[in-house]
């Protein structure tokens, strides 16, 4: 043997054994689809194909408000290659739909109420033909003056048969005559944020032999979407099936139902599969956005800075239709005072219709808007009292056992003071050197126009809170089935993986409970029992709880024969690393041997404790659980140009229990970065109801170059006893909190009030130094 061969053999023998793949709760188990996504082989809806495929296109209104005089589709129908044209006259079932309230037409018939509202849809044998045919449909409009100011909606002519007022919540808590020695007031405006999904919104509809239809969509709530589609098509729900394709991320309701519904109509009309891939412009026009909000606040405090009373008026611009505006308003009013003890609160909240683009569910809806306002008020109080902003907040923070202005007692862990102290005491980042080689540190990036001498650093704080699951009596229930055969476990649950990590969590739960390494999560469709929408941390809590209960039932089936044989209870047996052992060591076997070729399965549900609607005074136990976050922001501001660079965001959050450390950190960092966009760049601008620049050039998303250093300073693992595993949702509360913290830091750097998000450059300019 040569020396080289001997060396190679020795090296091979000395090579360390491969590290075991992590599994079970608490491990950073990698996502099962990570490789397929990174290699580009993961199937999204835009990748789907079917034999005999037709292509769809939707004609949308160019006006925000107009009366439809006539629709002439004859030219479109006569074009070669066109197979079908559908309008409001071709909807066989319920002509309206909506996620929270069914008030939105499938196709506008008499009036268009927002820019981009669907008028008709076309199916053709080529996508270009479909688009040209849609453009050939002649619609005669009588253009009407749009109502775009939500304050004017109260006095304007009704834009909808249901009127302009969607909901009014008057919250009354405590003594209306209470007053503080120190009073600060503020008027705040929050812009329109778009969820801006990077992946194209697409879908495929395939007709079935029984006269039904199958829809292949990136749906985040497939059963609700199925029921809506069935009602629209005039079919029984059993004859409509939704198969969930790969969801390329979701921070809101993933797809516009006005985009989904025409697909099935065209497939049923033509008897052929029909596919539609929305353009970026269509996405901006169609799906729901974050509610633009106007907020007026008055805070009363005593001489020590302790809050005495909060008065507020909150006005949400819902756009043309109600959607989930009622739920967003409940969150805004319920959390209008933030995670602070407020003995007296008087809040008025309204959600109104306008001719602006539609608003709906976007991560942290309602809570994000009020957080920006109440934290600005806390900064004003601190400045007026001459108190450190963090110290003022500490004097007022909420804790477990305190009462919200809605009258609900906070029974979940609420370590707000601990979170704030953690970020306050974390070391500040070093100051940049005033040298040419460090110009990249200036706001504006490399070779920016700024001068180092004009840069001011600011430090600010934000405390935020969100509710988890649905609210005000929503029936939060999920069903899951766990099957085990031949050493492999399969989970069936209609909880959609939107990027929040549910499929990974489900695998970890089964691994932890049954000691089985190989766990598969079945694709989602509506043949499975419903699991509800993929938002507000629902699937971590409700669907994860259902998987855990089903896995425990299978565990009992597995252990009972062994326990009976050895005369002991199943509680005296444990499963670790695929082995079953008894407390006294008498019994030791593997899970595979205990299965003995059998198939075990169980189905279980998880339903959290019920909530109740807010009453006429805004009182009631409306929320199942809450999550809290503290963020300290450090920014550099060029006070001559008004440009802002977020240097660092230090975060502390109560998470209940860390189930997957890597996944949790990624979710927090993503939420914080989304908040940076809300604070500085993301604003879907409109001019008299018309969306300006509906593309990713005109709508500025933060990129990797805009992302600051994100320091996760502390994760408080104080388990919520009513939640499965004790865990809390982690994604929404950083989104809610980081814009407020960034605005606070800009105020500290400039001395300007900063009362609008996103922060415009002129708001950060200091004219006199």
From TrEMBL:
Q: Which InterPro entries match?
A: Ald_Oxase/Xan_DH_a/b (IPR000674), Ald_Oxase/Xan_DH_a/b_sf (IPR036856), Ald_Oxase/xanthine_DH-like (IPR016208), AldOxase/xan_DH_MoCoBD1 (IPR008274), AldOxase/xan_DH_MoCoBD2 (IPR046867), AldOxase/xan_DH_Mopterin-bd_sf (IPR037165)
Q: Which residues are in the Aldehyde oxidase/xanthine dehydrogenase a/b hammerhead domain?
A: 39-145
Where in this protein does the record put region Disordered?
Answer: 1-28
Say which domain of life the source belongs to: Bacteria
Low complexity bias located where? Answer: 1-16
Protein name (database record)? Molybdopterin-dependent oxidoreductase
Organism annotation = Streptomyces gilvifuscus
């Amino acid at each position: 043997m040569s020396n080289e061969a001997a060396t190679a053999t020795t090296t091979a023998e000395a090579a360390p054994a491969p590290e075991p793949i992590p599994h079970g709760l608490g491990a950073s188990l990698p996502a099962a689809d990570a490789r397929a996504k990174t290699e580009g082989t993961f199937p999204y809806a835009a990748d789907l194909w079917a034999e005999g495929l037709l292509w769809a296109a939707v004609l949308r209104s160019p006006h925000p408000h107009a009366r439809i005089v006539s629709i002439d589709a004859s030219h479109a129908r006569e074009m070669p290659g066109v197979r079908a044209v559908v309008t409001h006259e071709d909807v066989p079932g319920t002509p309206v739909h909506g996620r929270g309230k069914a008030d939105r037409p499938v196709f506008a018939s008499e009036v268009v109420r927002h820019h981009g509202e669907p008028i008709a849809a076309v199916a053709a044998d080529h996508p270009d033909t479909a688009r040209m045919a849609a453009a050939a449909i002649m619609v005669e409009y009588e253009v009407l003056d749009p109502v775009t100011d939500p304050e004017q909606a109260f006095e304007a002519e009704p834009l909808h048969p249901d009127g302009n007022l969607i909901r009014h919540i008057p919250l009354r808590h405590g003594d209306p005559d209470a007053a503080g020695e120190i009073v600060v007031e503020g008027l705040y405006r929050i812009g329109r944020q778009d969820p801006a999904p990077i992946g194209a919104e697409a879908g495929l509809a395939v007709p079935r032999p029984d006269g039904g239809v199958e829809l292949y969509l990136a749906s985040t709530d497939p059963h609700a979407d199925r029921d809506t589609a069935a009602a629209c098509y005039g079919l029984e729900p059993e004859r409509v099936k939704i198969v969930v394709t790969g969801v390329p991320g979701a921070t809101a309701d993933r797809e516009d139902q006005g985009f989904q519904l025409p697909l099935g109509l065209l497939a049923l009309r033509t008897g052929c599969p029909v596919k539609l891939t929305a353009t970026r412009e269509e996405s901006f026009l169609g799906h729901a956005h974050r509610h633009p909000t106007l907020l007026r606040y008055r805070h009363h405090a005593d001489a020590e800075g302790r809050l005495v009373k909060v008065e507020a008026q909150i006005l949400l611009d819902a756009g043309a239709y109600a959607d989930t505006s009622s739920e967003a308003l409940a969150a805004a009013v319920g959390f209008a005072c933030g995670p602070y003890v407020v003995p007296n609160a008087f809040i008025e909240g309204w959600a109104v219709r306008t001719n602006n683009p539609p608003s709906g569910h976007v991560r942290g809806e309602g809570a994000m808007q009020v957080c920006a306002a109440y934290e600005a008020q806390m900064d004003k109080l601190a400045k007026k009292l001459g108190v450190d902003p963090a110290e003022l907040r500490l004097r007022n923070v909420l804790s477990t056992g305190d009462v919200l202005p809605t009258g609900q007692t906070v029974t979940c862990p609420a370590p707000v003071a601990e979170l704030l102290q953690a970020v306050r005491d974390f070391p500040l980042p070093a100051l940049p050197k005033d040298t040419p080689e460090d110009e990249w540190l200036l706001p504006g990036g490399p070779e920016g126009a700024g001068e180092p001498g004009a840069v001011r650093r600011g430090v600010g704080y934000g405390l935020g809170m969100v509710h988890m699951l649905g609210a005000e009596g929503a029936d939060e229930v999920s069903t899951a089935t766990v099957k085990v055969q031949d050493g492999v476990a399969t989970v069936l649950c209609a909880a959609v993986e939107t990027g929040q990590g549910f499929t990974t969590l489900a695998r970890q739960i089964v691994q932890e409970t049954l000691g089985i390494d190989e766990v598969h999560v079945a694709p989602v469709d509506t043949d499975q029992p419903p699991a509800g929408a993929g938002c507000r941390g629902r699937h971590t809590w409700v669907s994860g709880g259902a998987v855990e209960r089903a896995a425990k039932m299978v565990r009992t089936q597995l252990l009972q024969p062994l326990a009976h044989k050895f005369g002991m209870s199943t509680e005296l047996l444990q499963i670790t690393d695929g082995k079953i052992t008894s407390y006294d060591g008498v019994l030791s076997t593997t899970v595979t041997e205990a299965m003995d070729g059998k198939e075990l399965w169980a189905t279980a549900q998880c339903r959290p404790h019920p909530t109740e609607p807010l009453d006429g005074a805004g009182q009631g136990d409306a929320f199942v659980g809450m999550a809290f976050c503290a963020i300290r922001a450090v920014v550099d501001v060029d006070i001559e140009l008004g440009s802002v660079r977020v240097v660092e965001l230090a975060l502390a959050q109560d998470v209940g229990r860390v189930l997957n450390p890597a996944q949790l950190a990624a979710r927090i960092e993503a939420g914080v970065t989304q908040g940076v966009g809300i604070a500085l760049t993301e604003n879907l601008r409109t001019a008299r109801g018309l969306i300006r620049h509906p593309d990713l050039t005109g709508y500025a998303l933060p990129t990797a170059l805009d992302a600051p250093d994100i320091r996760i300073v502390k994760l408080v693992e104080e388990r919520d006893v009513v939640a499965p595993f004790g865990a809390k949702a982690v994604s929404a509360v950083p989104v809610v909190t980081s814009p407020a913290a960034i605005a606070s830091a800009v105020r500290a750097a400039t001395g300007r009030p900063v009362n609008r998000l996103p922060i415009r450059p002129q708001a950060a300019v200091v004219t006199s130094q």
